[in-house]
Specification:
Layout (H helix, E strand, L loop, with lengths): L2 H10 L3 H9 L12 H13 L1 H4 L2 H13 L3 H10 L7 H9 L4 H10 L7 H8 L5 H17 L5 H5 L2 H6 L6 H15 L3 H15 L4 H14 L4
Length: 228
């Protein structure tokens, strides 16, 4: 199945009603086809199981690159589902986040691909300092996903993120503050020690003079301090 075949199949699934729905949820629909995630996951599984890709990771990586460069919203999400981890370079990671133009593309790429990369913790720390809204969101989304999925990581890795959460909690851009909040809550859910430290950060933030920090702190405190 070539890139041309896959692109054609994606376009055949175009759903104008879903595109309008995406826009209502704050998803950039300029290059969207309105294809739902379960459909993309099924396509990804079929592609990876094909002999021409299963036995040749370089071809699969090349396909992911072509899908990403198409600019089609769902093609990029599909690319994040099929790309070959050991062939993903640091340069590719940095370049892909520059193309993020929607919260779901950002989060899907972090969940499907980036969190498993050996450089994930390094890139998360770097990306939170970037100025572009979705690039900074990528950093905090990656922190949240790592806290959620990387069960073997020690607490110290996440303790290092807490000062960054506090520092950037004053960013009032919607997609950043929601990701900062997500990261704080996920860190606090890992274990008792991180829960106590995350609650302390949340308490400090909810008393802040900054509106964004107060919202992040109040929301996280409410969830993390609730009885299990």
């Amino acid at each position: 199945m070539s890139y041309k075949n896959i692109a054609g199949k994606l376009k055949s699934y175009k759903n104008s009603k879903n595109i309008k729905g995406m826009a209502r949820f704050g998803i950039n629909s300029k290059y969207a086809l309105g294809i739902k995630i379960p459909v993309l996951r099924k396509m990804a599984k079929e592609i990876k199981n094909r002999d021409d890709y299963k036995d040749n990771p370089t071809n699969l990586h090349s396909l992911a690159d072509k899908l990403w460069k198409s600019k089609i919203h769902e093609a990029r999400i599909l690319a994040s589902m099929i790309d070959v981890l050991h062939l993903v370079s640091e340069t590719q990671m940095d370049n892909w986040i520059k193309d993020f133009n929607s919260w779901d593309l950002c989060d899907q790429t972090c969940m499907n691909l980036f969190w498993r990369h050996p450089l994930a913790y390094k890139k998360a720390s770097e990306w939170v300092s970037l100025e572009h809204e979705f690039e900074r969101r990528a950093g905090f989304s990656l922190i949240a996903v790592l806290a959620w999925h990387d069960k073997s990581a020690d607490d110290e890795k996440f303790e290092r993120f807490l000062p960054l959460i506090q520092k950037y909690s004053t960013d009032e851009r919607n997609y950043v503050k929601k990701a900062v909040n997500w990261a704080l809550r996920q860190i606090g859910k890992r274990d008792h020690t991180l829960r106590i430290k995350s609650i302390k950060i949340a308490e400090d933030l909810k008393d802040s003079n900054n509106k964004s920090a107060r919202w992040i702190g109040s929301d996280a405190f409410c969830e993390l301090s609730a009885k299990p």
